[in-house]
Write a structure and sequence with these properties.
It is a single chain. This protein is α+β, with helices and mostly antiparallel strands. Helices cover 18% and strands 40% of the residues. The strands form three sheets. Strands 4, 5, 6, 7, 9, 10 and 12 form a seven-stranded mixed beta sheet that branches. β2 and β3 form a beta hairpin.
Length: 191
């Protein structure tokens, strides 16, 4: 195995944006085409990047180590998926507040405490958004769902051991959700 060349570790690897044009922008997408110059001088055009807001993902666990999940249709993969409560953080909204709001709106549950897990880029190659992941402990049911008009989802309460089994067996498909669940397992939150 060849040893890494340390002299190249300080080399500038960043691309330079020479030009950028909005291709399409509406409430769902902000696709821009860039002309980019690579460190070696090569120019790539167009290189498409979707500029989206950050979103919150919440691992919500009751005092009895039951996990609050949602089932909803995802058109990208054309099927219903088992997921964590999640949604866009509003412009100017604190990510922690966005996580608490999304948990409440999608499930009707509130957190006894909310702990930051990590910030992760789900698709760093061509999307600007980050997932802000939180662990909500001691969650309790507080009110009915308050869904957006485009949302249709079912709340599922599942034992932590069952969630860990599904996690091992590929029962969760959203990559960010899998990462957040594994971190919650590592912290012992699922029992």
């Amino acid at each position: 195995m060849k040893k890494a060349d340390n002299k190249n570790q300080n080399r500038n690897l960043s691309w330079k944006i020479l030009d950028e044009t909005t291709v399409i922008k509406d409430s769902w997408i902000d696709m821009r085409a860039s002309t980019c110059q690579l460190p070696g001088g090569m120019v790539i055009a167009p290189f498409y990047v979707n500029h989206l807001p950050d979103f919150a993902v919440v691992v919500a666990v009751t005092p009895e180590h039951r996990v609050i999940l949602v089932r909803q249709y995802r058109h990208g993969v054309e099927k219903v998926l088992l997921e964590l409560p999640a949604g866009c953080i509003e412009a100017g909204e604190d990510p922690r507040e966005g996580a608490a709001r999304e948990l409440s709106e999608e499930t009707g549950y509130k957190a006894g405490s909310l702990e930051f897990l990590f910030k992760i880029a789900p698709n760093a190659s061509n999307c600007t958004s980050y997932a802000q992941c939180y662990l909500a402990r001691d969650v309790y049911f507080a009110a009915a769902q308050n869904l957006d008009e485009t949302e249709s989802l079912e709340v599922v309460e599942m034992d932590g051991e069952e969630v860990k089994r599904l996690l091992r067996e590929g029962g969760f498909e959203q990559a960010v959700h899998v990462a957040a669940l594994y971190r919650a397992v590592e912290l012992g939150a699922l029992g």
